[in-house]
Amino acid sequence: MPRSQPSMSEEERRQLIEKLNSDLEDFVAERSIAARNKKKTEPEDTRTIDEIAEELKNHPAFMTEIDWSKPLPPEIEGLMQLKYESENPTARADSYRDDGNEQFKLKKYKIAIANYTEGITCRCPDAELNAILYANRAAAQFYLGNFRSAFNDCIFARKFKADHMKAIVRGAHCCYKMSKYTDAIRWCDAALMIDPENKEILELRVKSEQGKKAVERDERKQAAQERKEEAEEKKLLQIILMRGIQVASMKVSKDVKFDPLLLTALESHNPTGAKVHVDGEGKLHWPVIFFYPEYAETDFIHDFNEEHCFYDHLAHMFGPEVEPPSWDEEHKYTADTIEIYFEHKEDEKLYKVDPHSSLLQALQHQKYLVYAGTPGFILCVRDSRFQKELLNRYKL
Questions:
Q1: Which of 130, 176, 210, 249 is the residue whose CA sits 20 to 30 A from 305?
Q2: Cβ neighbours for 8, distance < 8 A, ≥ 6 positions apart
Q3: For residues 103 and 115, is the Cβ–Cβ distance under 8 A?
């Protein structure tokens, strides 16, 4: 990855160049003397050309690959300063582009992006070079899966050169990867205006058309499903209204026409996700919650038929053959000792419910409001100390 280097004076630059040249001459001279001495005392050098080339790679003048994870030798630092300290911004940008291309070939895309970015920040006046830098960075971003960033670079590349073919093609692929099929088609058409026979773009345009049709088909299905659900909700609400049941979200002005879509409270808030529904015989089934404030406990009845009475459920939950709940250590909650109430929040009153009445009868009480699609009732033990304290807090 390119590093920012401290500025060098002309004298320091001259001395560095002279040192590098001198080092290179000494390197070659030493190898020549060593070769002559070796020839006198030892058998002929049998090294291959590849082995000699590998040795030369260790000299800064011939190095082609650098391990950026390790500190750079002083000679390499100096060479980089000479390379990137050109006062010509175009020359600097071009150097960064070359380095970026080398890293791109090695699939080191993040380092390549850093090089292209440095080249872009040089702000060179060459529009063609700027377009290339953006297009190349888009390619590196694309291979990293950064399709949005890649697409933005394609847009900038075309600002410098509107007909930059690689940027247009890359932009079309980015749109396709992001499932923006309409945009992909538009970018494909822009590419085909330049190269009408481009096979890659022709195939991509076909795939984009197919993707667009699939999205439109899914949107039509979703819209149809939403219309169906809306119709079912309206039907359900009509049944509830015909029962004379009041739902909290129905409390709107008399002058305002009732909109069933306002009845979002029909979505149940209980953990099971159960919702009020109508069976094949037209009977409503509600999720119901029982509160036991004495112990801060609750019970959920997932499916309470509107025609069933409360006592049937109490007998099933607190009958003599049923193990009492863990919180009822005194075993005082039984089907015959429990009393049922519902709360009217606005009046701050409790209303008593006959255990032998049906759920529908309770819900039809003129003061009952269904909240969050889940009717709720308060249960406590008759003549208990807690019941007396509870009733004292309310107006019964």
A1: 249
A2: 16, 81, 85
A3: yes
Question: Which two structure tokens, joined as six digits, stand for 149?
Answer: 């960033």
Q: Which residues pair with 381 in a beta bridge?
A: 338
3-state secondary structure 29-94: HHHHHHHHHHHHHCCCCCCCHHHHHHHHCCCCCCCCCCCCCCCCCHHHHHHHHHHHCCCCHHHHHH
What tens digit of pLDDT does each residue of 233-286 get?
888 888 998 999 998 765 444 444 444 333 444 444 555 678 899 999 999 999
Instruction: Say if CB 240 and CB 253 are below 8 A apart.
Output: no
386: number of Cβ within 10 Å: 14
Other residues' Cβ atoms within 10 Å of the Cβ of residue 149: 17
Residue 364 — φ and ψ, nearest 5°? -85, -5
pTM: 0.54
Instruction: Say if strands 297-305 and 376-381 run parallel, antiparallel, or are unpaired.
Output: unpaired
